[in-house]
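Researcher: Re-running this chain for the archive, since the previous output was lost when a drive failed. Same request as before.
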Amino acid sequence: MPITAQQKLEILQKVGVDPDKYWLDDDGNVIEMPKDNSAMAGAKTALLNLPRTAAGVGGAALGTAGAGALGLPAGPAAVATGLAGGFTGAAIGSTLGEMFQNAVYPDDVRLAQEARQVRNPVATQVGDLASIAAFMRPSLSQTRDAIRGVRALTTLPKFANLRPSQSGALMNMGMGGVIGAGTTLAEGGDAGDVAKNAAIGALFSNPTRLSQFMTRGVFSPHVPDVGLRDAVNPADLLVKPGEPVVEKPREVNPELLKAFANHQKADAKLAEQLAALKANQEAAAKKAHIDAEQGIGFDQPLPAQDFTLPHDLNSLESRFLRSTAVEPDVEVTLTG
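Model: Regenerated structure tokens:
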């Protein structure tokens, strides 16, 4: 069994050889190999790991497609089968990619990369992320929808509350996690490395254009929910029938949105006024119907009023009665 890069580092340190200048080949011979700076180590790692990463992603796509060919009905069983297929495919693909790299890369290139893993652990980790980002990238909207999806699954009626964008985000992040775990396990990583790379894979799980092309659409990018403000153009709501609909602009005009709100308020006020007018008309019609049944009309004379004037027609009382009398239906009775 070949010794690992960490074991080679420990051997060089024990014999007093500077591991930043020298390295051990597969036969145990000390060879001169200067250490790269961090930037160069990261860039070389990203480029050299591209074949293995591509093989892992491609294998996961094939495994997922194979699981989908089983024709299981949509549900937890189909999801679990798809993830298992992706895990298996990623492990096999990564193993084949590693074999390809070992067969194609010269020994000095392979040994230099082995030394970088222990000499520049942070830079090589960044390089690994860069090679992953060529096929799978992080997405804030996908992470947000995945969190909302987990929240929806923890409430009743569970799957009924799960929106398509949330289920898609969960599936993408789950697939990214199993790809990271499968490739690391295939490379002989321990449980800690498997868990770490599974978390990284879940974060870097939104397929890029290259990944979509390579997997023939098996992996699809996340499509977030569209808010009402972005989905509806207020200008379209103000268009009269028969007029052409204005194409939705990229940015909503605040003045247009304000005009739309004022228009809505004016419509509501007009509706209230029409309702009040209708109520008044109904009340007037009802009163007219009642008056008609009682024989009361607007053209009827007022009932006669009988006023008795005092003897002194020039008195204050007599003048007041004459001023309040109604003509011509007033009957005046003189007492003598």
